[in-house]
Amino acid sequence: MMRSFPSTPTALRQVREFIRERAGEAALYQGSRDELVLAVSEVCANAVQHAGGGRFVVSWNAGPREPAEVEVKDEGVFAVDGMGPHGSSRGFGLPLAAALVDELSIARGTRKRPGTTVRMVKYRAAAEPSPAA
Asked: Which of 83, 97, 127, 132 is the most exposed place for a label (fewest CB within 10 A)?
């Protein structure tokens, strides 16, 4: 399933709802669902802030027993130095997203070929973890 969103900060709430609904339909456990929603939201925030295009696309793919796969495609050029520089309070969205999912890969857009794609995969947990006592 694929959905296009405007590159505006207000669209991030719609992205989170879209992913939360898909993850619920796919019967992901609540903890995995929350982690995936946050990871996708961080990646989409980057698309809104840095890509410079008018829209970005979020695609969802997950079978009943398969991992959840989400792709975020924008119209931008990926900045290599955009990940958590020392002494900065910015640039931690991608490292956070990578920590929340099982796989994260980036197909970088260039000046000659704009359009960055971030692919995230969240594997299904065998069982819902017990809450900490």
From this structure: 132
Q: Higher-confidence residue: 132 or 43?
A: 43
Per-residue model confidence as pLDDT tens digits over 57-91: 999 999 778 899 999 999 887 765 555 555 555 66
SS (HEC) of the chain = CEEEEECCCCHHHHHHHHHHHHHHHCCCCHHHHHHHHHHHHHHHHHHHHHCCCCEEEEEEECCCCCCEEEEEECCCCCCCCCCCCCCCCCCCHHHHHHHHCCEEEEECCCCCCCCCEEEEEECCCCCCCCCCC
pTM of the model: 0.86
Q: How many domains does the chain have?
A: 1
40 inside domain:
yes
For residue 127, being part of any structural domain is answered with no
CATH of the domain at 74: 3.30.565.10
Q: For residue 133, tell me if it sits in a domain.
A: no
Is 90 exceeded by the pLDDT of residue 92? Answer: no
